[in-house]
Amino acid sequence: WPFHAPLIHAINTLKRVRNAVILAHNYQTPEIFHGVADIVGDSLALARQAASTDADVIVMAGVHFMAETAKLLNPEKVVLIPSLSAGCSLADSITGADIRLLKQKYPGVPVVTYVNTSAEVKAETDICCTSGNAVQVVESLGVDRVLFLPDEYLAKYVATQTKVEIIAWKGHCEVHERFTGDQLREYRTRFDGITIIAHPECPPDVLEASDFVGSTAQMIDYVGDKRPARVLMVTECSMSDNVATGLPDVEFIRPCNLCPHMKRISLANILESLTTLEPRVEIDPAIADRARLAVERMIAVGR
Ligand code: 13P
Ligand code: SF4
Question: Which end of the chain, N or C, is less packed with Cβ atoms under 10 Å?
């Protein structure tokens, strides 16, 4: 903190000058999450908040697809992503051309895409979803089957929660795919009475070995409500750091898988970005108009 304090002070001062708001994903480091963020949350909360802010400038302390979603919902505002290399293995796993081919193969089948996709992919989509509302979005369509893209494991998880037939793609999150069911069983043996909660981007054997499955915000709410004596959050490890500060009575057991993309955002590049008002997220208007519809349809479904 002593080293972070001058940067935090400078960012919070400049934020007021710029009438800027900093949205931070739950995976950001504690100095960003607790030090400079105005709004923190999962992808769904960040999309909702981006839709309702009256700031002139939005700084996305998250990854590129999250900044694009904020820009889609705020075409007139300046949306900044402090590092253009903050990508996502899921977003990189599928292109607009892939979706066009799938639509030819499955004519008339609605396309649901995870928000972890590019605007170009969203533009080919009927409706978006996040890990927090995926089942609800799929069921809102009132159909027997959907294309659910690109996360294979989230698709498999959704298929266990609904009667709607789910056609999946082969995208994976490079952070969550590394966890294994064996690893979780080993933690159960080593730590008596441990509660294990997992993100649905994990492989099926991990989810089967867990006590609860939910989005990052749902995982945080679960720990806040249930106050387990010991918990293992099977997800990006900064999240445990962020939550642990407010829950001294809970012991957090942490295998550490970091998202290299989220970690490209730092206090230093947030300050640089607010100073220069760069790098800005811009989306081709022809793509943006169609992609926005898919995100707005998701927001209309509710949580
Ligand atoms: P949430 O929507 O659950 O926050 O997940 C986003 C993400 O990128 C998880 O890896
Ligand atoms: Fe993408 Fe996985 Fe990083 Fe989330 S944790 S941003 S899904 S690579």
Answer: N
Ligand 2 atom nearest residue 91's Cα: 1
> Which ligand does the CA of 214 lie closest to?
1
Say if 142 falls within a structural domain.
no
Q: Which atom of ligand 2 is nearest to the CA of 65?
A: 6
Residue 187 structural domain: 176-253
Please state whether the predicted TM-score (pTM) of the whole model is above 0.90: yes
Per-residue pLDDT 10s for the chain (303 aa) are 458 999 999 999 999 999 999 999 999 999 999 999 999 999 989 988 998 999 999 999 999 999 999 999 999 999 999 999 999 999 999 999 999 999 999 999 999 999 999 999 999 999 999 999 999 999 999 999 999 999 999 999 999 999 999 999 999 999 999 999 999 999 999 999 999 999 999 999 999 999 999 999 999 999 999 999 999 999 999 999 999 999 999 999 988 899 999 999 999 999 999 999 999 999 999 999 999 999 999 999 974
Interval between CA 216 and ligand 2 midpoint (Å) = 11
| CATH number, residue 82 | 3.40.50.10800
Q: ipTM more than 0.95?
A: yes
Q: Strand locations in the chain, DSSP E?
A: 20-25, 39-41, 57-61, 78-80, 111-114, 127-129, 145-149, 165-167, 195-198, 212-213, 230-234, 251-253
CB atoms inside a 10 Å sphere around CB 96: 18
User: Binding site membership: which residues?
Assistant: 25, 43, 88, 114-116, 131, 173, 199-201, 216, 259
213 and 277 part of one domain: no
248 and 269 fall within a common domain? no
